[in-house]
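Example for tutorial group B:
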């Protein structure tokens, strides 16, 4: 699919490389080199995706994402040389839809772009829309409840703010509490099948969710790792198996 993409990258060589790969796939590309220009381009035109570097002059990418999320659901793919867990979680907390650390291969970048555009285009109205599916009833696993009808998550009765990807991951796990899902199965639910997207995306969402639904995130009792396989949402009244 052809889309209007804003690329915010202060390194001219890197920006030109991203532009060329995007244009090779048929996208219309606008390149900007500072955060304020990125925010203006995202606000002022028919942008369908923002590829956003974190470290930029005038206004950094985190501030851009924070400001944009207060007014828009435009998909944001963040690029950064910072690869620590805290950096990844901060970007996702601010509403980034995906996060790619440098150095990255152009093929992986394009795969992430394709995935985000597929997900966002699926939410667009069609010329002859089909009747909406009947939402599933609320799903409960221990102290965690996922309500697809209201698109809400609660833990211990407390509302939990989730990104769309986090909500979908919890929805899948809560539909079958106790079942172990592989990273590949969860990734397919989040992004569809794409050979260049890594399972690190799932791990990052899990780390973020644990901060939100676990009483003690460093000692998870609800969103559990099954080593060598994947993840499960625990059963039981307090989220323990």
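The residue assignment follows.
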């Amino acid at each position: 699919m052809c889309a209007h993409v804003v690329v915010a990258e202060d390194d001219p060589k890197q920006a030109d490389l991203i532009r060329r790969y995007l244009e090779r796939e048929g996208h219309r590309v606008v390149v900007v080199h500072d955060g304020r220009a990125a925010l203006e381009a995202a606000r002022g035109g028919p942008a369908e995706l923002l590829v956003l570097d974190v470290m930029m002059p005038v206004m950094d990418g985190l501030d851009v994402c924070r400001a944009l999320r207060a007014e828009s659901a435009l998909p944001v793919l963040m690029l950064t040389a910072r690869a620590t867990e805290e950096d990844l979680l901060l970007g996702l907390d601010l509403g980034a839809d995906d996060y790619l650390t440098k150095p990255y291969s152009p093929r992986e970048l394009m795969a992430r772009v394709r995935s985000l555009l597929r997900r966002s285009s699926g939410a667009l109205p069609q010329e002859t829309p089909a009747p909406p599916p009947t939402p599933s009833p609320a799903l409960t696993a221990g102290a965690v409840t996922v309500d697809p009808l209201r698109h809400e998550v609660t833990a211990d009765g407390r509302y939990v703010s989730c990104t769309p990807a986090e909500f979908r991951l919890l929805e899948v796990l809560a539909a079958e509490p106790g079942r172990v899902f592989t990273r590949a199965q969860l990734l397919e639910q989040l992004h569809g099948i794409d050979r260049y997207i890594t399972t690190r995306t799932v791990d990052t969402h899990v780390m973020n969710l644990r901060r939100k639904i676990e009483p003690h995130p460093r000692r998870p009792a609800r969103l559990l790792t099954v080593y060598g396989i994947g993840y499960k949402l625990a059963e039981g009244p307090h989220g323990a198996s």
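The mean pLDDT is 82. Compare this with the pattern of hydrophobic and polar residues in the output above.
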